[in-house]
Design a protein that fits this description.
Amidase signature (AS) enzymes; binds glutamine; alpha/beta; about 475 residues; eleven-stranded mixed β-sheet
């Protein structure tokens, strides 16, 4: 397995080149993309220009960034200038953004080479990529199973070794859940740590962009590159990017780690065993394990399925056939908009828009949306209380290993329940990461989840690295 750190080292010291690394990535994509449906678009020419620029800078003796020559896959809800960006929706078919998301500019400035756009559930709504208008992505570890979602393409790109790193977005679990199901590392940063300028909004009070990788250190490096204040995003935290990579080997000695039963109860026996194994490994590394109960977390899923659809119903109002992508003509403007939205959106997106519109409508606003906001405050306060007792919280990422295609697609509630452990952190705005630890049914990977208070990414990476070593993957 090639890491981003090793690729950048080799490109910088001349034992490889950015162009050679890119060609290898393009070959792997060509070999497996038909089967797995990971990339919706591969930017062969643009990526070659960027890779050549990195090699030319090295030849001129210029200093190149920490991701010099590292190919990276980008979730297709992040805008890249001139590159088709669909959000896996028919409604954006043919749209090419005229600008870069801030994360793209930061990647390129760091020497990384964006190679293409990855599949997702339409508008990031889903947990399996089965909601993509362009067909599902297959899990590289078992192509009869889902890779998770909504960032399933970005997780599969890393799991299939097409790229060493990728970017996803996490509104209710869409980085951590596919990371768990694909056996890799995925991080949802603190709300506001990474600029969302140029990310196509789903639920603006929850959305965050974050990294995928095979190793903990690569995610720390990638997050360092993309984090830090951006004046173009009004929700961006005012400080510069934190130092993360330098802390991955800090360990957990003296840390208090809360084993929260609401974050693993009801899981498969193998998942519960993995969480217990992780707790034991952290204890052996010098942490104190504290068993905790945070009953408020049980309400998270219900609150999320009011807040996220409410915000989505507003955010998706802009797809009206006038400004972006696809238009279906009609006799007048109203008929055109109705025909465009009827043809352009898939079933799950329509379901969310209807749920959200209902929750926000006069007469129901207080009973649904208002109530959900109160639950959100309860969640924030409950986490804050827990973090007075412990430094880090440990739980499962998902209740079970990767499921088969069609297993949950017909029942929205069954699908939504896959995110029961990931959603509470998004409501609180706190960071969390998932990393593989142990194996479950069919020898598929299990993800354990580490959560912390706002801006505690450095200690989450240190705990994750401790588990990575204990799991024998370092
Ligand atoms: N699976 C959740 C949903 O469908 C979370 C999605 C996400 O984080 N983008 O809303």
């Amino acid at each position: 397995m090639k890491t981003a750190l090793s690729i950048a080292d080799n490109v910088r010291n001349g034992s490889s080149t950015a162009v050679a690394e890119l060609e290898q990535t393009l070959d792997t994509i060509a070999a497996r993309n038909d089967e797995l449906n990971v990339f919706l678009h591969v930017d062969h020419d643009g990526a070659r220009v960027m890779a050549e620029a990195v090699d030319a800078a090295i030849a001129r003796g210029e200093s190149v960034g920490p991701l010099a020559g590292v190919p990276i896959a980008i979730k297709d809800n992040l805008c890249q200038r001139g590159i088709p960006t669909t959000c896996s929706s028919k409604i954006l078919e043919g749209w090419r953004p005229p600008y870069n998301a801030t994360v793209i500019d930061r990647l390129v400035a760091a020497g990384a080479v964006p190679v293409g756009k990855t599949n997702l559930d339409e508008f990031a709504m889903g947990s399996s990529t089965e909601n993509s208008a362009y067909g599902p992505t297959r899990n590289p570890l078992d192509p009869s199973r889902v890779p998770g979602g909504s960032s399933g393409g970005s997780a599969a790109a890393v799991a299939a070794a097409m790229t060493s790193i990728s970017l996803g977005s996490d509104t209710g679990g869409s980085i951590r859940q596919p990371a768990a199901l694909c056996g890799i590392v995925g991080v949802k940063p603190t709300y506001g740590l990474v600029s969302r300028y140029g990310m196509i909004a789903f639920s603006s009070s929850l959305d965050q962009i974050g990294p995928f990788s095979s190793t903990v250190a690569d995610s720390a490096l990638l997050l360092e590159v993309i984090a830090g204040h951006d004046p173009l995003d009004s929700t961006s935290l005012p400080e510069s990017s934190p130092s993360l990579l330098a802390h991955v080997d800090d360990g957990v000695a003296g840390k208090r780690i809360g084993l929260v039963k609401e974050l693993y109860e009801g899981s498969s026996p193998a998942v519960v065993a993995a969480v217990m194994g992780a707790a034991e490994a952290l204890r052996e590394a010098g942490a104190t394990i504290v068993e905790l109960s945070i009953p408020e977390l049980r309400l998270g899923l219900s609150a999320y399925y009011l807040i996220a659809p409410a915000e989505a119903s507003s955010n998706l109002a802009r797809y009206d056939g006038v400004r972006f992508g696809r238009r279906v003509d009609g006799e007048d403007v109203t008929a055109m908009m109705e025909a465009t939205r009827t043809a352009g959106f898939g079933a799950e997106v329509k379901r969310r828009i209807m749920l959200g519109t209902y929750a926000l409508s006069a007469g129901y606003y207080d009973a649904y949306y208002g109530q959900a906001l109160k639950v959100r405050t309860l969640t924030i306060n409950a986490f804050a209380r827990a973090y007075q007792e412990v430094d880090i919280i440990l739980g499962a990422t998902t209740p079970d290993v990767a499921f088969a295609f069609g297993e949950k697609a017909a029942d929205p509630m069954a699908m939504y329940l896959n995110d029961v452990f990931t959603i509470p952190t998004n409501l609180a705005g706190d960071p969390a990461l998932s990393l593989p630890f142990g194996r479950g049914d069919h020898n598929l990977p299990i993800g354990v989840q580490l959560l912390g208070p706002g801006r505690s990414e450095a200690q989450l990476f240190a705990a994750a690295r401790t588990l990575e070593i204990a799991d024998g993957r370092a």
